[in-house]
Amino acid sequence: MQTTQTTQTTQTTQTTQTTETTQTRQRWKVRSGVYLVVAFLAAGALGAAQPATGIPTEVVQLTQFGPALGVALAALLWPSRTRGLLAGPPGHPASPWRQLLVTPLLITLLAAGPYALLTGTAHTTDPSSLHHPFLLIALAQLVGACGEEIGWRCFLQPLLRTRFGPLTASVTVGAVWGLWHVQALAQGPAYAAGFLLATIAMSVVLGLAMEEVGGLRRLLLAGGFHALVNLGMLLFMDEETGSALPMVLFGLACAVTAVPWVWRRREVTIPAAVG
Fold first, then answer.
1. pLDDT, average across residues 4-15
2. Residue 188: what are its φ and ψ, rounded to 5°?
3. CA nearest 75: which of 20, 151, 161?
4. What is the pTM of this model?
5. DSSP letters of 35-90?
6. Is 40 exposed, middle or buried (0-12, 13-18, 19+ CB in 10 A)?
7. Burial status of residue 229 (CB atoms within 10 A of its CB: 0-12, 13-18, 19 or more)
8. Which residues contact 203 (CB under 8 A, 6 or more apart)?
9. Which of 73, 175, 195, 206 lies at a CB distance of 3.0 to 4.6 Å from 184, suitable for a disulfide?
10. What is the spatial distance between Cα 9 and Cα 7, in angstroms, rounded to a whole number?
11. How far apart are CA 254 and CA 232, in angstroms?
12. DSSP string of 85-129?
């Protein structure tokens, strides 16, 4: 009789533990879902409200703060978990920040160079010809980029990393990041394909480069990378006209620059054969 009761107790405990484990595994779906709903809806609302604010889109687009609002709600609902995701891994491992911040310059070169050759025109914009001081635009771009990256790279990326490998998590975040830019997807199939290729490739670069980086360093590196890409496009490309060619070239340039990061990750994770 005692053996039977012990067996039943053990089975009950195992069932309870299995249920709790399943619920824990499902929480990432709820958290990511809540974040994404807010990020999408808030971006749309902020974009609609921007004309009334008088803030020029050349300086900063308010839609960029939609992800930050998603993180803010997550912090209210799950404060300890959100703090843990934003804090990142313990310790301060070295990060390849030089290579990371040089990558946007390489992307710009690989996109703008072929574009100029194919069209016979250097699509450059004199910073002094902009409607607002370039320094103001650069600072606002950094702030806006950080408003996005606190959601994509500082919250969603580490959240997905609790369930997936670094490459899968990075590709997923990049795809969602691209789909979040609804206005870019409305420009036509080729334009949308180039844009999605760019967001996925850049997300792979950022995800792999900052695998062990957390906290404020992660935010500033991701925001700096993002802002440099935006400024490069502003000064050397004209994809804002809706033309597919510059966007396709931009996507291909991002994909090319992502290859060394993927290869580097492969060398780190796959040991060399012995003998």
1. 52
2. 125, 160
3. 151
4. 0.87
5. HHHHHHHHHHHHHHHHHHHT--TTT--GGGGHHHHHHHHHHHHSHHHHHHHHH-SS
6. middle
7. buried
8. 152, 153, 157, 170, 171, 173, 174, 177
9. 195
10. 5
11. 13
12. HHH-SSS-----HHHHHHHHHHHHHHHHHHHHHHHTS-----GGG
- Tens digit of pLDDT for each residue in 43-64? 999 999 999 999 998 889 999 9
Q: Would you state the structure tokens that stand for residue 190, as one six-digit string? A: 């080729």
Cα(241)–Cα(263) distance, integer angstroms:
35
4/241 Cα distance (integer angstroms) = 75
Hunting for tokens 């160079």 — which residue is that? Answer: 113
Cα radius of gyration (the chain): 22
Q: What is the mean pLDDT of the chain?
A: 88
Query: What ranges do the domains of the chain cover?
Result: 2-269
Measured CA to CA, the distance from residue 9 to residue 6 in angstroms comes to 5
- Taking the CA atoms of residue 192, residue 195, residue 201 and residue 206 in that order, the dihedral angle to the nearest 10 degrees is -130
> CA geometry: angle at 10 spanning 8 and 12, to 5°?
70
147/155 Cα distance (integer angstroms): 12
1-22 core/surface letters (b: 16 or more CB in 10 A; e: else): eeeeeeeeeeeeeeeeeeeeee
- For 91-104, what is the mean pLDDT? 82
Distance (Å, whole) CA 238 – CA 115: 10
In sign, the C-alpha dihedral spanning 199, 102, 258, 210 is negative
